Amino acid sequence: MGWYVYEGALEGIASAEVEFGGRPAEAMIRAKTFEPPAWFGKNISEDRRYKNHSLAHQLPHDPTPLGSKEF
User: Fold this and answer.
1) Rounded to two decimals, what is the model's pTM?
2) Whole-angstrom Cα distance, residue 28 to residue 26?
3) pLDDT of amino acid 63
4) Which pLDDT score is estimated for 67?
5) What pLDDT is recorded for position 3?
6) How far is CA 17 from the centre of its chain?
7) Residue ranges of the domains in the chain?
8) How many CB atoms lie within 10 A of CB 20?
9) 21 by DSSP, 3-state: which?
């Protein structure tokens, strides 16, 4: 699992990524039956607004790096 807390122009956005290992069929079952804790919030997996490409285009165009933190 990875945590990402964004800073700068994207401050206020935080995301968690959960991956399920093993054989594809087993991983799919684990993913479909996963019960996230309530504090995970909304599932944005399929929300195009939160894909890396979309987030990058929301940034001001300057040489300052995004600076996300991984926990």
Assistant:
1) 0.58
2) 5
3) 45
4) 53
5) 85
6) 5
7) 2-70
8) 14
9) coil
Residue 6's CB is within 10 A of a number of other CB atoms, namely 17
CB 1 within 8 A of CB 67: no
Q: Is 69 helix (H, G, I), strand (E, B) or coil?
A: strand
Q: What is the pLDDT along the chain (71 residues), one digit of tens a residue?
A: 788 888 888 888 888 889 999 999 999 999 999 999 988 888 888 888 888 888 888 776 554 454 555 54
Comparing CA positions, the residue from 32, 39, 34 lying closest to residue 15 is 39
32 phi/psi in degrees, rounded to 5:
-70, -25
CA angle 56, 70, 50 (to 5 degrees): 35
- Phi and psi (nearest 5°) for 25? -65, -40
